[in-house]
Fold this protein.
Amino acid sequence: MARVASPALDELIGQRLAVLDDGFVRVVDYMGGDESIVQAARVSYGKGTKQLREDRGLIRYLMRHRHTTPFEMCEIKLHLRVPMDTWRQWIRHRTANVNEYSTRYSVAIDAAQRTDPAEWRRQSPENRQGSSTNLDLATGQALSAREAQLQELAREVYQERITRGVAREQARKDLPLSTYTEAYWKVDLHNLLHFLELRLDLRAQREIRAYARVLGETVVRAWCPVTWEAFVDYHLQSMSLSRLEIAVVHALSTQPERAMEVARASGLLKSGGSLEPTREGKEVGEKLALLGFVVPWSPPGRPD
Amino acid sequence: MARVASPALDELIGQRLAVLDDGFVRVVDYMGGDESIVQAARVSYGKGTKQLREDRGLIRYLMRHRHTTPFEMCEIKLHLRVPMDTWRQWIRHRTANVNEYSTRYSVAIDAAQRTDPAEWRRQSPENRQGSSTNLDLATGQALSAREAQLQELAREVYQERITRGVAREQARKDLPLSTYTEAYWKVDLHNLLHFLELRLDLRAQREIRAYARVLGETVVRAWCPVTWEAFVDYHLQSMSLSRLEIAVVHALSTQPERAMEVARASGLLKSGGSLEPTREGKEVGEKLALLGFVVPWSPPGRPD
Amino acid sequence: MARVASPALDELIGQRLAVLDDGFVRVVDYMGGDESIVQAARVSYGKGTKQLREDRGLIRYLMRHRHTTPFEMCEIKLHLRVPMDTWRQWIRHRTANVNEYSTRYSVAIDAAQRTDPAEWRRQSPENRQGSSTNLDLATGQALSAREAQLQELAREVYQERITRGVAREQARKDLPLSTYTEAYWKVDLHNLLHFLELRLDLRAQREIRAYARVLGETVVRAWCPVTWEAFVDYHLQSMSLSRLEIAVVHALSTQPERAMEVARASGLLKSGGSLEPTREGKEVGEKLALLGFVVPWSPPGRPD
Amino acid sequence: MARVASPALDELIGQRLAVLDDGFVRVVDYMGGDESIVQAARVSYGKGTKQLREDRGLIRYLMRHRHTTPFEMCEIKLHLRVPMDTWRQWIRHRTANVNEYSTRYSVAIDAAQRTDPAEWRRQSPENRQGSSTNLDLATGQALSAREAQLQELAREVYQERITRGVAREQARKDLPLSTYTEAYWKVDLHNLLHFLELRLDLRAQREIRAYARVLGETVVRAWCPVTWEAFVDYHLQSMSLSRLEIAVVHALSTQPERAMEVARASGLLKSGGSLEPTREGKEVGEKLALLGFVVPWSPPGRPD
């Protein structure tokens, strides 16, 4: 008997998968694979199931029914290089093991994430925590020049402090958040998938999404291909319908003429007899469109 | 400035809310309420939002978009009396604080959960981990008599061991799983709702569901009424549609004649041109019916 | 580059290491080893340290100074067979991943832990949660006979319920706590060592200590020998001295005649000028003896 | 029956306890107190103990024997204002609930931690992750002037980005780590004490120690005075002796002439018959001195 191995992931071990201008993801070690999930589920279910289902069906069943514990039986250890700003979001995922490069112990990594003039993003007018289209190039060039100036001064000041003998723990205090840090990050597959579900979402910040894409589409797909496929089908590309939304869909599929009334009773339209959707009503409309319905309160072709 | 209080929950403090034949749930202490969730969310969002939304809308927005951290800001401490068999399921929820009655330190609680003759449940033929209808009364009476005999012998043997000076930690080794235990259980609202989502599900075992109902419908509803309502709308009575299910609904609402083809391509029908659904196909059929669709592969009125 | 391997642990994979009358510990998979701890620590400390210390010294330094995160970088997955009574203690360690054999899904494991007539333990008169010497053989034989009778009835009743069609989830309700269960248990090395520190303690119950010994002395010692040695030196065989104990030792090593006075002021002697130690005073006395001091309030050779 | 209250902590609720130049700690809410710890311990121990011990003795017993779960029964919620650099250390304590001010959603807090010219610390020559004495005032003034220049430029650049319409999530990327952030931080008493044990240590960074002092000496002392006292006695001012150290103390107290030999055999002296201690040997020497022993390898009055 030997350890479970994933030949496709073995090939990736040690490779630096580039992200952003100077970041990377590198697989260092791992334990388990699709096979371990099946093995763990079968301990729970006892002998009875062995012949009945093949592995793929079992993994998909577990994913569909949110039986999450078998996915915790796989573990992966990554070496990351990430801007501190992105790391601030990353570290909020608490169920993981972390060893970060210490700027108390060693001189800070001399690299900061820089923005290409074409990559400055405009504040989204609708979504307070999002960005939208990119700014024009002339503005971008001015912004990138100032970014370089600021990063240069920060580097100089840090260097001066070190030279004058300031303790590293204090010298680092004004480093920009764009400074790269490195860490070993170890996590089980269930928690990694949860991280990916949140960080692959379009509302996640572009920088962390870039890491999530590499982790999902390169690393997890190579490591546990059956699980990745099930995750895409039952989580990433799934949709949740609330009690209110179920009622609206039910009306549309049985008595379409009552749909407006149902929507109004559920607070999806602005008050006072308006045909305009509330914020939640707009979100509902987007889902209905994906389900192939003509949204009664938002004429086709007229996105709101 | 003073602590956040929930007058409706204050009234419940100390009351034993009965569950099963001899169990209970008792609220001992708590921190926060609906108001604390809003307060925490506003720290995240900064000053800008104060005037813009009212509290109910904000709580519903957080629930709808799975912004879970503000719900972690409320905490509750309960005194529970639960059969050890149920406790074995309960304790699998790891994100909680626990102090359980120690049968090493003290003599075991002299009470075991008994089954009424009318309450013996038949093994479900379809769902390997479920039960279905109840057994007939004559059988139930025989089973309850044997239950009493076994519990009586277990009590005698335990008592003998204690009398003969056996260490309590060893004397307890053959207590039946039906023996009641007590514990203080402290949990934050987010994790309590997650517990309730799993344990109010119809597939959860009837005994733990009895506790979950009291915790949800009596305790949480009194403590955080706005959160409870949002939880019901966006979680308890919600439905998740997979990538495959979205495709089937889309077909039904736009080109119903293609729905069978889509379902077949997604593996929802048995192979070989069959019109019979697979196990997943049946589950999909149940959801479609709830959405008001005529399920193409399962004629109405003929449940499978 | 390849995964870190531990040849000594590779040899153990798949072997059932027997514990109690019918239990076992079996290593299923693992990630990392002593080498990974060093690797993780060096990410934290940066390049500067590579030449300065060799690995053993670094691991001992980390252990001595409670730098725990590098030890979280190793992970192990075990297959366990444990009486439910012991499992109730085991599962209280929350930072681990678990898949337990389901007696809802499958018929319960037909084995219960039995007590040899010579192995019945007497309740400790001093330590309310402990046991002391064994009971005499005649008593033990009577107790073992009654144990067999109870376990036999429990098996019969369980079997009857299954035969009559009772749902497995309900049929199991009166199984004795001595019934064996099985589980996959996955844990990182830091949390495993914490488990071992608590469960190798003489105050831990004998049954779980039997498992802890195999886990520590066979599994961890083979897997991470340098870490195991450091753990023994800095944790298992260490001693903690409180502020009060430091004061007493200081008095004994500088002005022995003042030691009684210091002890009295710290509440280690009973009030009213007594020379008798309090409960805490006895514990302090045991430590002083281990440190080679003549305990002033407990004449040598007269253990209390 | 009513919630447990701590009148001394009630008085602190809402007050901003100042830390550093512009930070604070503010108690927002809490649950429980010394009384809850006793209550939880008594559930574990059953009725038998009620009369036997008074509360103070029980709390001290629990603390001395590392019975940690009753301390998890108290919870506190704090509003913090902390430089991001300090927050990076703080957030590594994973067992807590957090809502941080979002600089994606709102404009960043316009305050950065500044260093007084007299407060620049020299890198410790011995301890790679520490600082030692302060730098001279002239150097400090130069460093503080440059700090002001850098912080001023960072503020300008951030403001420009916001003005030109850059998304907040991107505009913040070069904020200095000294920028203040705010958060709600909710934690149970056991984990708070663990945080304090690590962050009150002299090796912790001065900035986070300033917060830890307020949390310990003002907040916890007011909230749970008996627990705080026990924590000081059994943790903060305790000392751990390793297997090697126990052997050295034993030698010193029984056969002082053998102490050097024991120390040498344990690797506490440099190899080759040297009388010079290794790094670990120096640490042992410091402990021996605190215990009142003359350290054989380090003549009194000659600190190494």
